[in-house]
Amino acid sequence: MQPDILIQTLINGVFTGGIYALVSIGLTLIYGVMLIINFAHGEFLMLGMYASYWAFTLAGIDPYLSIPLSAAVLFGTGALIQLGLIQRILTAHILMQILLLLGVSTLLTGLVQFFLGAQPLTLLMPYSSFGVRFAGLVFNLPRMIAFVASLVIAGGLYLFLQRTKTGKAIRACAQSREAAQLVGINVKFIYMLTFGIGVAVTGVAGTLISPSYPTTPTVGQLFSVTAFVVVVLGTMGNFIGALFGGLIIGIAEAFGGLLLGSDVKVIVSMMVFILVLLLRPQGLFGRAKT
Amino acid sequence: MNQAEKLARESVKVHELGTNWLRDLFLDWDKVQMAAVLLVIIILGLSPRVVQSPYYMSIIILTVLYAYVGITWNIVAGFAGQLMIAHLIFVGLGAYTTIVLLERFRVTPWLGIPLGGVTAGLLGFLVAIITLRYGLKADYFALFGIALMTVLRVLFMKIKFIGGGEGIWLTFRGESLEKMAFLTKAPYLYLGLGLLLVGSVAQFLIYRSKMGKYFLAIREDESAAGALGVNTALYKTLAVTIGTAMAGIGGGFYVIYVTFVDPPGVFNLGYNVEMALAAPIIGGLGTLAGPVLGAILNKPIAELMRGWLSAERAGSSLIVYGAFLIFFVLFLPRGVVGLIQHPYERLRRRLLTNLQK
Amino acid sequence: MALLEVQGITKWFGGLVAVHDLNFNVDRGEIVGMIGPNGAGKTTAFNMIAGFYRPNEGHVYLDGKDITGLRSDQICQLGLARTFQIVRPFKEISVLDNVMVGAYNRTGSERAAQAKAEEIIDFMGMTSMTRQTAAGLPIASCKRLEIARALATNPKIILLDEVMSGLRPTEMDETIDLVRKVNQRGIALLLVEHVMKVIMALAGRIVVIHHGEKLAEGRPDEIVQNKAVIDAYLGEVKTSAAN
């Protein structure tokens, strides 16, 4: 195997990994604060992709410019879902939580399929397959932009959580619901905010990949499962872990695709998933349970 | 109250064939539920006399199938509290086993369907052992199931021998008892009802047995159950193995009736909700009559709504099932049976105080 | 040979030694009380005996058999049952079903388990609650249910973990009578308790735990006069004994 191909695969993997990281950051944030695994997470990515497609088709807005739009729409949707549905089951039995989110996931997929059709929609931008050539390697432009944007957004979110008052309130809730309430934090509001941000970030990820991936109602499901892998690998609730996990999975999948064929490359992440669940369920950054 | 309870207990011990048997039945909530289930089965069994349209017949047959698969999930998740979210994996495995044995090896489904149960049960056993060995609980157990479903879907897409991405069709198109192929719908209905009857009775027997009580104890509080002598590892494994094996048999019947199976069709979370989860949740997870009552409410209503929405097929059923799940989790977590239970208990108490006189 | 022999059990968590070299016995049919200040290590010792923690050192023998490190269900089958301080009823099933789970420890038959469960429910004075769902029970009844379940497993000894906590004085008196009745069936009891009145009323012997070690052991009248015990623990109790 020529070194060129290997490096090319690595680059592709890193780019994809950035997107995985962005999607997973939302998921891990939600889990860290609310202790809920958002089984409907991928559907928000799907909504972001559709938002981007229709923004362009109806209003001619370039996907990258419609990022704020996606973010806003998804934040709103997420906040509503959180307030209306999730807030009610925060203390319910875990089976009920999982089933509710599965219901949300199924409903969202169904609504999109019903109103917008199930056929794949491709957002072909003039730059969709544009590649920058450098040192004999091809850097696909949209993917590269997606990667850089992911890092920027992740970095921005990190700073938000670390430096701003609201961000600190969110982190406080992640540590202890009761203690946060005792110091006067409106926990319900923080939860709404967290869920909204978590899914908005995922929706933006969807917008970022819309020039490169076909948009279908079920595209979210695959990303969902991959996001689970990344989050578990990087330790549930751990922001940096999600970043690393995303990159690791992206790269692993890319090489898996090289060796096994791109239609089965998801097996690689599933294998990683199963191995992590069995051998190190606390993830890379977690502490082993006694 | 004391005396009435004692009296009621005495009457429960009286032989069922005595004059007290009806009262005895009514005082026992489990038996009331079983009576309801039997009633549903009988009514559905008589349906070919009134229902002529093949479309409505097929709804009824699928309802019966969903009730049965719901029972199998009820045993795993409702009785024993194991979060096997991706239950359809086992139905799918059973379906594949049956149809591959029929199409590639000419094995009659009369043998193939039980063998489907065996393969599904084996996988279930493996899952139980592995998750036990590595201590996977709750969330993680659910995620493991989802990962497994994805793996199976991708794997089955690649294996040409079992149809790959295109799936396998039942090639025989005539009437043959040996091949379990029929030209009218009624025989499928009777087969399905037979399966449902066996499944319901099995569910009842399990519920009333030591094993069933141990399942419930594990669901409620695993640690406390252990302190009372329950070997939780053993019984968790039993619950999963039995439920998944039964699901495999359901898969065998499914493929014989639908005559086709492919990976995205069965290793699919949306269809998993529709076939395995919806009925027990609507009817009442953990109850005896839940899966059956849930199925007769669920499938026909879903079909009706699809008729009204009358557009994109897949989308509308997803909307209906998603909405059902959300509604029931939020407002009726105990399902329909749970709703009926309170008025029943009031009636029962009144009956008991009357007995005191 | 005593029924329960605790020999040199020790447990540490990280750098903290919770229990160190604890030794005591419980004879057949005896009631032994285990007392000590909060954090003394009573619960840890209790959990080690009942099989919820594995001792780092030492052994526990039940009727001559080494039960150290066995699973809790194995220990229960050998004849040691326990209750939980914070009650853990099987909420969604009836009182009868709850007790039947315990009764199934010795039988596989539904009839036999039900008969045994009903006998125990009657014995505990809970007949009127037989078919009630455990979730609706008040705390005092939940405590009874804990004992009833443990009793149904047909044990040789029951470990009662602060069975009086959360009870009003009248309920406490009733529970004391109940515990005595259980003992009269020939079952030994190891009680972890804070309420001195209870220990004095029930225990034939008392083991005092302090800083993870056995501070004193003896009859109740000896213990209340033991200077070390008074200094470490009972001195404070003089005020709460008025409760």
In short:
Chain A is an all-alpha fold. In chain A, about 70% of the residues lie in helices and about 5% in strands.
What does this structure look like?
The complex is a heterotrimer of chains A (290), B (357) and C (243). By secondary structure, chain A is mainly alpha-helical. Chain A has one domain (3-116, 137-279): ABC transporter involved in vitamin B12 uptake, BtuC, CATH 1.10.3470. Chain A is built from 11 helices and 2 strands, in the order H-H-H-H-E-E-H-H-H-H-H-H-H. Chain A has helices at residues 3-34, 41-59, 67-84, 94-116, 141-163, 165-175, 177-182, 187-209, 219-233, 239-260, 266-279, and strands at 131-134, 137-140. Chain A has a two-stranded antiparallel sheet. In chain A, strand 1 and strand 2 form a beta hairpin. Chain A is globular. Chain A starts with a helix and ends in an 11-residue tail after the last helix. The mean pLDDT of chain A is 87. Chain B is mainly alpha-helical and 357 residues long. Chain B has a single domain, classed as ABC transporter involved in vitamin B12 uptake, BtuC, CATH 1.10.3470. Chain B is built from 16 helices and 2 strands. The longest helix of chain B is centred in the C-terminal third of the chain and has 27 residues, at 232-258. Chain C is globular. In chain C, helix 3 packs across helix 4 (110-123), helix 3 (95-103) packs parallel to helix 5 (139-152) and helix 4 packs across helix 5. Chain C has one domain (4-240): 3-Layer(aba) Sandwich (Rossmann fold), CATH 3.40.50.300. Chain C has a 6-stranded mixed β-sheet with strand order 6-7-8-3-9-10, with helices on both faces. A 4-stranded antiparallel β-sheet of chain C has the order 2-1-4-5, covered by helices on one side. Chains in contact: A-B, B-C. At the A-B interface, helix 4, helix 9 and helix 11 of A face helix 7, helix 13 and helix 15 of B.
Label this structure with key terms:
heterotrimer, A: 290 residues, mainly alpha, ABC transporter involved in vitamin B12 uptake, BtuC, two-stranded antiparallel ribbon, 71% helix, B: 357 residues, 16 helices, 2 strands, 76% helix
Work out the strand percent of chain A. Answer: under 5%
Q: Could you state the order of secondary-structure elements of chain B as H and E?
A: HHHHHHHEHHHHEHHHHH
Oligomer: heterotrimer
Class from secondary-structure proportions of chain B: mainly alpha
Largest interface: A-B, 46 and 48 residues
Strand percent estimate of chain B: under 5%
Query: Biggest β-sheet of chain A: count, sense, barrel?
Result: 2 strands, antiparallel
